[in-house]
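INFO  loader      accepted 1 record
INFO  loader      residues=112
INFO  predictor   begin
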Amino acid sequence: MAKYSKKAQKKVSKVMHEYGEGKLKSGGRTKVKDRKQAVAIAISEARREGDKVPKKVSSAKKTSSKKTAAKATSKKAKSKKKTAAKKTASKKTTVKTTAEKSAGRKTTRRKA
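INFO  predictor   done
INFO  writer      dumping tokens
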């Protein structure tokens, strides 16, 4: 497992101290209010200085893990949806048959 260098650890502690005092700003304008954002700023600054910091996780890896989690939850939801779908399907077919009957009646009236 990748570890942070001593320099990177010092950088994170320094930035977190600024965050605690309310002096940490993102982009030079707005104050940072989220602790996770403060850590992200510290890590990116350490990375810029060349300290040993683990590589960024690419967005492709993040989305693939989200998809696998979504598949697990969707399987549970599908079993519930199937019963509801069957009920609505039966209602729709009855509507179609009555519509077809009325359409059939209209054509017979026109012929006569």
